[in-house]
Amino acid sequence: MSLKLKTTTPPSPLLQIQNWSIRHLTLVKIIVSILYLVGIAGMAIPEIRPYFQYLTPFHLLMTVGVMLLFHSDWNKQFLIFAAAAWTLGYGSEALGVHTGFPFGNYAYGPVLGVQLLEVPLMIGVNWLILVYLTGSILNRLISKDWLAAILGAFMMVLIDFAIEPVAIALDFWSWEGNEIPLSNYLGWLGVAFIIHMIYRKLQFKKENKISFFLLFNLTAFFVILNFII
């Protein structure tokens, strides 16, 4: 008689980290809130503001890292969405900087880090974050893809209303004539709608336990700084 020993495959390091994070969700939220509050304080104090401006790309990386840490379905279609969101977001910005379409005439400052074609690579990450977070929140509430995409795009435009004055003051980017044109918001609406439709049409689990919390902190960060700087 031979004995067959059952063997089990150990969970991947990513799965182990995700399991830890889910069990310690409150701790992760506390850490995220502290980092955002420190960021607000740093940007609000002129003497140390330049150092915190330098840290802006790392702050974005922290946000997308926490977001992806709580994402549970790393299938091919999710990877296609992530690549499409970054490419369309970055590509529309590169087109905008060099032609004025679809956002208007503007130029990026050095704050957002490494640039290609005069556009920071991190700007694609910003588009990915905003579409994913707003899309995740609307996923449970709206069943029709086109309606969810429209509402998600409008949510992003409202967020951009809070982002723009702060971004200009902190030298993220600057507008020709120092005026934010209506085309900026119309461009945001159009590009966001396209990426949201891709998000809705591709099949992957869209529930994320920390989406609302991250979006709240990100939006509050810019809203508060509007009253400070």
From TrEMBL:
It holds the Pfam family Caroten_synth. InterPro entries: CruF-like. The chain crosses the membrane at residues 26-45, 51-71, 78-101, 121-139, 146-170, 182-199, 211-228. Keywords: Membrane, Transmembrane, Transmembrane helix. It comes from Cecembia lonarensis (strain CCUG 58316 / KCTC 22772 / LW9). This is Carotene biosynthesis associated membrane protein.
